[in-house]
Amino acid sequence: MKQERSKVKSDILLRVRLLYVLFILAGGIVLARLVWVQLFSSEVAYNADRLASRIFTQEVIPAQRGSILSRDGEPLATSIFRYQAAFDFASPGLDSLDTFREQADSLAKLLAAFFKDKPASAYARMFREEHARRYRLVRPRDTTYLRSKGAIARFFDRLRGEEYITHRIYDTLRDHTPVNIFPREVDYAEWEVLRRYPLLNWNMGMVYNLVERDERIYPQGELARRTIGLTGDRGNYGIEEAYRGELAGKPGKALRQRIARGFYGRVAGGDHEDPVDGYDVVTTLDVDLQDVADKALRQQLERQNALWGTTIVMEVRTGEILALANLGRDPGGGYSERENYALSRSMEPGSTFKLATMLTLLDDARMSPETVYDTHNGDPVTVGPARNIRDSHRGDHEIDFRRAVASSSNVYFAKAMWDRYGITGKKFDYSKYLHETLHLGETVGLERLGERKPSITTDWKVPDPGVMLVKMAYGYRVRLAPIQMITFYNAIANDGKMVSPVLIRELRRGDRVEERFESRTIASSIASRSALHEVQRCLQAVCTEGTASAFFRDTTRVRVAAKTGTAQITSPTEGGRPYLGSMIAYFPADAPRYTVLTTIETRAQPGKAYYGGPLAGPVVKRMVDYIYNRGHDWYGRVESDGPRRYPERIKGGDIAQIRRVAGKFSPRTEYEERSGWGKVRVDSLSRVVVTTLPDTPGVMPDVRGMGLKDALFLLESRGLKVRFSGQGSVTQQTIPAGARITPGAAVTITLK
């Protein structure tokens, strides 16, 4: 009996021990699993990330893109925030139908009055339909619950047979998809008004999500579009593309928690980083000048039925670009900013390149301006190996350097260059001078905006180097962009100092300038002082007696120095031979402040211009006139305060006009006649004394002391052919006063 009990006891102990072992093994397995999961397995982290991604999201907060501004701070491109209210019509805050309909009807009336796009009833209908679609009650059923909770109250309810109350309940289906309620996005000022309206002021809870979008706008429209550029799906070019990094800024980030589908709230204390807005890019462009350049160029392109054109205005001393217009023909026949021709079109410039030839001959070859060549009256001639070299005009035979510049003679410069660099075998010296002294083989610093590199040979490895040398003398077989040509001419206006053009003045954030850009000195002097002065005089002669005289012969207001150029080019155009016409001018010639270039490509068409002067001249003339008339600081001023002052000198001329002027500015005027022509002197007491000139036919009058206008009128009324130089009042006349004159005689007057 004792043995059986002992056996049973042993079995029980064995089973208990086995259970202990099993429990220990199970605990060990669980512990090992926990250690594996916590230390070695990626499953937990994966599941945690999945869960966190459903609850939390890392939102990128975009930085506001910087603006592109004119030199005066006017916006050329800027970003503004647009707002849209994305409603959650399934939000629990809108479950009270009576309250929702009351608030929605009020909001509908206000939105209809604000946007004026549809009646209030349409807004109200939209709100109710969207609410009914997004918030639905389904599967209705009855449920019961006790009317009263206390035992005594339940006893009396039971006696009345009203112990339980029946109530109908529903399941709710909510669609939290956001619905935009504004007919369009609104700006910040509009949103400040709208946010006070019912529902939008969150009087029924957070029932909508405010969606912000950064929109790029261009307040000046298409003005300077190729220079300013575009960004986004419409293209990336111009300043918008070149300064993308500076304008874009640095986006921020914020941790948000999911509240409902499409709705998130910012997590307090989360990993936040505020965005850094982009820099504002301040350009050198003058909006008024840009507008005038655009209109003048557009008008000339339409008048001449041309293909494209560009106009540039540059400040001489600083190199700042004040206007940069680029217009090309659209498929529809109009003109728009299709390409930045000023920077990207590297083409044969034609006779405007003769400026380089002029400097080469005067400065490098030491040729005298008195050197004479026969230009053969416009007939074709052979120069070295080059045949059929001719001038575009007739009337010139043996001419000197100055006349060759004024008339833009191809033959003269071809012969002069061949004699000094062709026959002598100094072609490499010529190309070296162009590259190293004149710096015409390099870009001018606008590569970031798409500037093309010039093409001027250095190795002369061509089948016809002699022909190439001759044609380079008058602007063929070389390629330069308009921006490089105006930089070259600007160096002449700047007394030989070549500075790089500047289009971007500074980067700023708010009122703080972060980085300033200034012109780079490419060369302190590109030629000797004597060569520069001779070239400057020749460019002025182009305006008074040469190919630009139709536009700038009148020097009574402002003297201009310029050069015209025409090139037959190879271009895939139809309907006529393509030509490139240019004019480059700087003014005032005696103290230059601005350089202006216009280049136009056109086709030879009946009744239309294709030479550089008549093709580009009207645009340059318009720009010069506008800038001069706008620049009030160019004119002398009479201050209203301070001691009274009187003129020390008054020009002679028409006595009636002298009396009118003197009467306003001098204390006393003495004269013999009330009309006619007279000379003027101002005595020590500031009295104006007018002496009448004799009006004797056939006798040379004394025009010394007169202004150009009166002197020209008086001399030409006597039948004389007048040439003049200088500005101010007449100081010399080649025919002495009182000498006998005959109609048709020539007289030269000098003004100072």
UniProtKB/TrEMBL annotation:
<dbReference type="InterPro" id="IPR050515">
    <property type="entry name" value="Beta-lactam/transpept"/>
</dbReference>
<dbReference type="Pfam" id="PF00905">
    <property type="entry name" value="Transpeptidase"/>
</dbReference>
<dbReference type="GO" id="GO:0008658">
    <property type="term" value="F:penicillin binding"/>
</dbReference>
<dbReference type="InterPro" id="IPR005543">
    <property type="entry name" value="PASTA_dom"/>
</dbReference>
<dbReference type="InterPro" id="IPR036138">
    <property type="entry name" value="PBP_dimer_sf"/>
</dbReference>
<keyword id="KW-0121">Carboxypeptidase</keyword>
<dbReference type="InterPro" id="IPR012338">
    <property type="entry name" value="Beta-lactam/transpept-like"/>
</dbReference>
<keyword id="KW-0645">Protease</keyword>
<dbReference type="GO" id="GO:0005886">
    <property type="term" value="C:plasma membrane"/>
</dbReference>
<dbReference type="InterPro" id="IPR005311">
    <property type="entry name" value="PBP_dimer"/>
</dbReference>
<keyword id="KW-0472">Membrane</keyword>
<feature type="transmembrane region" description="Helical">
    <location>
        <begin position="12"/>
        <end position="36"/>
    </location>
</feature>
<protein>
    <submittedName>
        <fullName>PASTA domain-containing protein</fullName>
    </submittedName>
</protein>
<keyword id="KW-1133">Transmembrane helix</keyword>
<dbReference type="Pfam" id="PF03717">
    <property type="entry name" value="PBP_dimer"/>
</dbReference>
<dbReference type="GO" id="GO:0071555">
    <property type="term" value="P:cell wall organization"/>
</dbReference>
<dbReference type="Pfam" id="PF03793">
    <property type="entry name" value="PASTA"/>
</dbReference>
<keyword id="KW-0812">Transmembrane</keyword>
<keyword id="KW-0378">Hydrolase</keyword>
<dbReference type="GO" id="GO:0004180">
    <property type="term" value="F:carboxypeptidase activity"/>
</dbReference>
<feature type="domain" description="PASTA">
    <location>
        <begin position="695"/>
        <end position="752"/>
    </location>
</feature>
<dbReference type="InterPro" id="IPR001460">
    <property type="entry name" value="PCN-bd_Tpept"/>
</dbReference>
